[in-house]
Amino acid sequence: MSLLSDLLNLNLSDTTDKIIAEYIWIGGSGMDLRSKARTLNGPVSDPAKLPRWNYDGSSTGQAPGEDSEVILYPQAIFKDPFRRGNNILVMCDTYTPAGEPIPTNKRFDAAKIFSQPDVVAEVPWYGIEQEYTLLQKNVRWPLGWPVGGYPGPQGPYYCGVGADKALGRDIVDSHYKACLYAGINISGINGEVMPGQWEFQVGPAVGISAGDELWVARYILERITEIADVVLSFDPKPIQGDWNGAGAHTNYSTKSMRNEGGYEIIKKAIEKLGLRHKEHIAAYGEGNERRLTGRHETADINTFKWGVANRGASIRVGRDTEREGKGYFEDRRPASNMDPYVVTSMIAETTILWNP
Length: 356
Hints:
Blueprint: H1 4-8, E1 19-26, E2 33-40, E3 53-56, E4 69-79, E5 88-95, H2 106-114, H3 117-122, E6 125-136, E7 141-142, H4 169-182, E8 186-191, E9 197-206, H5 208-228, E10 230-233, E11 248-253, H6 255-258, H7 262-275, H8 277-283, E12 306-308, E13 315-317, H9 319-324, E14 329-331, H10 340-353
Parallel strand pairs: 1-5, 12-13
Antiparallel strand pairs: 1-2, 3-4, 4-5, 6-7, 6-9, 6-10, 6-11, 8-9, 11-14, 13-14
């Protein structure tokens, strides 16, 4: 008699050319990922060759019950680390039957910005540092923390090693390998300052692909925590008090910034970001005011400042960038629950297209 694990690990290519495509989209809250699967007659590598599909938007908070159909447009394909073989994950965005993007489709507007000739010419690179917290399922308290109590104060946990310091490493390493398998340009992982909190980095990625890759990396992580019976939280301040919050620091450069004389371009870009500080903060994630307090390696939410190697600044420039006179900078304001389509395109719009 076959075990359930045997059936889950069946290699379909032994008996059929058909594959399974898992269509992924973002639900009505702007953070809830949804997905469903369909059978295709053979391998597909071009999203334009995938069929459009639909779902019940009244069940995701994205359409009324009397006109509930929302259409999925395939936009990016990744290898499926769960089903393996030729099976794929498909990142989609969402439209009405008439072809209009629905209000929660943030990818559509981002793609318009990234297709502007001035933006295309600058080849914007992004590296996103996604922090997150692992929670015990039944009590919604960080993994490895005593229920109703607290571990020792912060200090030994950041990049820590040991059973009392690195809480959930099996989940984190599984996610790392699964993302590499999927074709996501995940560039690293580390334990964070608060125990039970971790970070992965996606990038460098160009333009709209940064948003696609981060959303699929989030999806893979949520699937892995589902298997591990652990809850994944992107709350920017999951535990009040003297504990670090969770952000999504966004590293950014353009072709001009990476070339000789780029440091002057960086300083002009930072000046423009400062002039639109309130607009960016409003789009950088819900509950961010609980995190951006001026403490725990943040700048106060109402203050814009930048500095070299300053982790208490809104924008941090690295020592290497200052020394070499070119490179990139880090926007430290985005919360862990930000939408990468919104944040990446807004940074490009402000620094490349906007004229104060």
